[in-house]
Each structure stands twice: as C-alpha cells, then as structure tokens.
C-alpha cells in the first residue's frame, strides 16, 4: 500500500502574521515535501490556542505549527506536552524566546516550514507551575522559557501594549523605569528539591528553563532546555551598587566574556555577586508575604501568594532544522 500522506496543522495568531503570504508559503512547502493540505486554525481573543491545538490532536495530524508570539507558542505547547506530537515554531512575535534559545532562524518563513515538514525531532523539558492565591482554586500552567515574580512581572503589567506593538521590546524600557521607582521588596520563604526552608528579601525571582532573553541578554548562563532541571536567580540588590553588580554580571560577564574561550579565561573562576543568588533544581516551592503578579513566558497569569513549580523532563518534542 502507498505511504499515507502526512498532514500538519498550523495554529495562527491572525494579529501576528501576514495570512495571505503565509498561506502561499505553506502551499509551496506542502508541495516541496509532499504533505497534504495543512489544517489552518486561527486563535481568538477567547481561545489563544488551547482549543485549536486540541482539534489538531483529534484530527491526528503529524505536526502542529505555532505561528504567533510567545503566548501562542506556550499555549500550544501546553496542549501538546506529553503527547509525542511535535511542535514546530514559526516565530512571529516580539520576543520569540523559545526560538532564540533553540538557535532557530528568525524571520525566515521558508526555513521554518522546511523544519516543520522535514526537520529533526528534539525533546525538551517543560516547566509546570501551580499558582495559589488565598482560598482561590489552584491554577496550573506550563511554561517553556521562564517564570517570574517581582520586577519582571510588574514591568510587563506596566508596559503599554500599543507602544509594544509599535516598538517591540523597547517598550519595556519605559516600563522598567517606572517599576524601578517601586521600592517594595518581596519577602519569600522557599524550598528547593525538598530540602530546608530558606527566607529571603528580593526584588524578583526568576525560574528559567532557558537562559537567553532578547537583546542578547544571557540571564541564566547554565540553563539548558534539555538538562532535566531549571535554573533560578534571586535578585536582591541593595541600592545603586547592587544594581551595578547585576548589570556587570548579566551584560558583561554573561553577555560578553562567557561567550568566548578567551573571555572565560579572563573571567576566571565563576563567582556569585551579593546581589544575585543562583540556584538549580527540579522542584521549587515559594511562599510570599503578599500576593504578587506572576508571569510565564512573558504573559501575566494573575496574582499569587504561593507558587510551586517543577520540571517535566523531555515532555515536549520540537522540530529543529535537519542536522542541527
């Protein structure tokens, strides 16, 4: 019997893509690789990708392509997690955080579709977070890149959406200036991998499955998407000197020196600075003295006074260019 023609589904955020151009590129890729017509599923304001990804699974497709920003990618991945059906990325947003951390080519639709139809499979870890706020029901969500409480979540909340649409990540600069005037600190108690409970005061806590952010910022230099662990950084600067330590560590040591052999020799033995505390593990439980905004992969998920997060290792298959 002849081999059954393979079929893809594409979950499209219509605000983020040029639909006519994408349909044309899809048709060319289907013909190039001998695939059937792709199932086209658009997100809506009420459903950012969950229902569409479930429909794709019910239709028995061979791969699901996420065409949109980080929110679309996260939502589709959450549905595909643990199913074995591969996720392909067609980066179309401002951050494209997972694509950057997988070293995928951005702004190249043809290359992205070639990877979707003829790329290699790569298993990556997924972070899972349970959020609790008082007596409210526990909310559970998955994330691919980073979960954050503190300055980063407040910065996202303060960002002007219209400004972000026009100027991308530059919009966060204005929001950051507003947030840094906020002197409120987090008071937290946390437990890592079931060990003892620790107390700390901090400005922000970031739990990362990946380490790189836009603008070539390497926040978590040891993070990897497939090592079965996440990396955590607790930022606790004290005044101007503390912030200066963070800037030097992130932008100079992580962003410049660590990227080359000569730079790593110049940097010498890795050392922590007082303003940053790095941790690594598989499960992190945190309680806050008051409810705070929580962000997952750059989107806000409401306020929480307690957070439990863990790694679901190798639970998502993603498509990458063949031979990488």
Quickly list its features.
324 residues, alpha+beta, Tumour Suppressor Smad4, 2 domains, 10-stranded antiparallel β-sheet
CATH topology heading of the largest domain: Tumour Suppressor Smad4
Biggest sheet details = 10 strands, antiparallel
- The CATH architecture assignment of the largest domain turns out to be Sandwich
* Percentage of β-strand residues: 25-35%
Total discrete domains: 2
Residue share in helix: 25-40%
Poorly predicted regions are 166-179
CATH class value of the largest domain: Mainly Beta
What is the mean predicted local confidence, pLDDT?
84
| Oligomerization | single chain
- The structural class is alpha+beta
The general outline is elongated
> Compute the gyration radius: what is it?
20 Å
Give the ordered list of helices and strands: EHEHEHEHHEEEHHHEEEEEEHHEEE
Plain-language structure description:
- With 324 residues, the protein is an alpha+beta fold.
- It folds into two domains: 8-118, 3-Layer(aba) Sandwich (Rossmann fold); 127-313, Tumour Suppressor Smad4 (Sandwich), CATH 2.60.200.
- The protein is built from ten helices and 16 strands.
- The chain has helices at 19-33, 50-58, 70-80, 97-101, 109-118, 151-158, 161-167, 171-179, 239-254, 261-267, and strands spanning 8-12, 39-42, 63-68, 87-91, 120-132, 139-143, 146-150, 186-192, 197-202, 204-208, 212-213, 217-218, 230-235, 276-281, 283-296, 299-320.
- The strands form three sheets. Strands 5, 6, 7, 8, 9, 10, 13, 14, 15 and 16 form a ten-stranded antiparallel β-sheet that branches. A four-stranded parallel β-sheet has the order 2-1-3-4, with helices on both faces.
- Strand 15 (283-296) and strand 16 (299-320) form a beta hairpin.
């Amino acid at each position: 019997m002849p081999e059954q023609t393979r079929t893809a589904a594409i979950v499209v955020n219509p605000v983020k893509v040029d639909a006519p151009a994408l349909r044309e590129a899809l048709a060319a890729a289907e013909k190039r690789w001998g695939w059937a017509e792709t199932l086209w599923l658009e997100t809506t304001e009420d459903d950012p990708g969950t229902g569409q990804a479930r429909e794709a699974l019910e239709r028995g497709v061979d791969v699901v392509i996420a065409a949109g920003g980080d929110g679309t990618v996260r939502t589709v991945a959450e549905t595909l997690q643990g199913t074995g059906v591969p996720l392909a990325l067609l980066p179309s947003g401002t951050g494209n955080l997972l694509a950057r951390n997988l070293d995928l080519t951005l702004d190249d639709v043809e290359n992205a579709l070639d990877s979707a139809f003829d790329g290699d499979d790569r298993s990556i870890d997924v972070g899972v977070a349970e959020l609790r706020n008082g007596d409210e029901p526990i909310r559970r969500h998955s994330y691919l890149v980073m979960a954050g409480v503190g300055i980063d979540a407040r910065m996202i909340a303060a960002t002007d959406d219209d400004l972000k649409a026009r100027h991308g990540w530059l919009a966060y600069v204005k929001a950051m200036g507003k947030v840094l005037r906020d002197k409120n600190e987090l008071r937290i108690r946390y437990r890592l991998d079931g060990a003892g409970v620790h107390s700390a005061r901090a400005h922000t806590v970031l739990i990362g499955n990946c380490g790189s952010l836009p603008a070539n910022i390497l926040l978590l230099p040891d993070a990897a998407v497939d090592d079965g662990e996440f990396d955590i950084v607790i930022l606790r600067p004290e005044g101007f000197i503390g912030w200066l330590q963070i800037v030097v560590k992130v932008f100079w040591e992580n962003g410049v020196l660590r990227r080359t052999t000569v730079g790593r020799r110049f940097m010498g033995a890795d050392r922590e600075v007082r303003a940053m505390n790095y941790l690594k593990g598989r499960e992190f439980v945190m309680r806050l003295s008051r409810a705070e905004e929580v962000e997952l992969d750059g989107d806000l998920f409401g306020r929480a006074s307690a957070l439990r997060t863990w790694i679901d290792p190798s639970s998502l298959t993603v498509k990458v260019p063949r031979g990488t």
